[in-house]
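Problem 12. The chain below contains 434 residues. Write out its predicted structure in token notation.
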Amino acid sequence: MEFGGGTGFDAARATDAEALAEQSLTVLAGLPPKLAVPLAQKMQRRFASAELEKTAELKRSGASERSIRKQAEAGGTRSKKSASRAARRADAVNVNPSLAEDVDSGDLGEEQLDAIANASQKTGGEAAKDTELLDEVKGSPADEANKITSRWLERRDDDNGAKTRYERQRAKRKLTFAYDPVTGCETMTAQGDRETIGAIRKIVGLRSDALYRKDGGRDLPNEQHPRTRGQRTFDALHQLVTESGSAPSRGGGRPKTPPVRSMIHIVVTVDDLARDQIKATCVGGEGLLPESVLDQLGCDATIAGTVFSQQGETLWHGRFHRHATPAQFAALIARDQGCVVCGADPSRCEAHHLTPWTAPARGRTNVDEMALVCADDHHWIHEEQLTLYWQLGPPDPATGSRPRVWSTRPATPEEIPAAGAETGSTSHSHHSAA
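Solution.
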């Protein structure tokens, strides 16, 4: 480690301190674990306390927030968020120097200090000086610290203060999308006022509970459920968002705002056409669509096709709308009354082609060739490569009419898109028909 700046005397002292630290680590490494672990924890607390005091000293000397963050990031092992936390801790220690002593003694952990520092920042330093709050935080588990400071802030607010809290949270509301390189997943983060987030949580929770019951509920051991709690919550949110346009309006029928629809983009090059190898991707997504997903989206999506030359020039572009019209959807609601598989409410249903539009048999978007199915059953039908069909049931004794009785059977080759030949990708050449 190199130390820069200051006088030669200061640099020499820093070198001596580093040498002493290295000696301590050498001694620590030679101790048995039962002695080494608690001693290492004590040393960490001492160093953390020293860092707090010195960072607070920088703050008192007039150093800017930016320079303090840069100082905290200097080692290269801290993120910007961690550096910002270090600056907030320093502010709290300047308000109440005993906080550094509490860290040194082990009475206050870093998570507890962060909770106090955050509350102190919101209250102009008041939280860092409130002895009752500090005692409650120090006497509770570290993972309870944020809850304790939140309750303290709520008690501190009067009616006007509560309104200020709501307005402050509303002003910071946002929904962000990002890519997490650690998990390799796309992420979505929402923040906002407690009331709105609570309402969203309740609605998503109700849908998640319904999925839990559909997956087997309490009759099935948790380890045998097809989805974890987190996966059900994600699926519930996805269903609510994608089905929001399917809910009936106050006057009945379809809403004025059209439902959210996917766009399937068929990418074709001249070489692809020669090999009958066509790739389907969904706008906004990455990679090729699996055959089952493509079939499901193809029932209710905007289809776009583009032909490129070997040099990447666009040679042809076309688009076909293959989803049911509002009038057709209303007719399906009147006829089927809900999902023809499970009976789910029409607000949760989608228009399903009995013969997929993407299949060689080329299903048509006619009311007689479609049926209402809920999102879960829609996915199941395509995933299992089934064909939905109906037969007339026995006459109703009162009216004499014969209702439709719906069943499923394995799809024939003409009802399943052909798989890609060379790369294993799905081949759907009929999508790009002119």
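Discussion. The first helix runs from residue 8 to 29. Students who got a different answer should revisit the alignment rule from Section 12.3.
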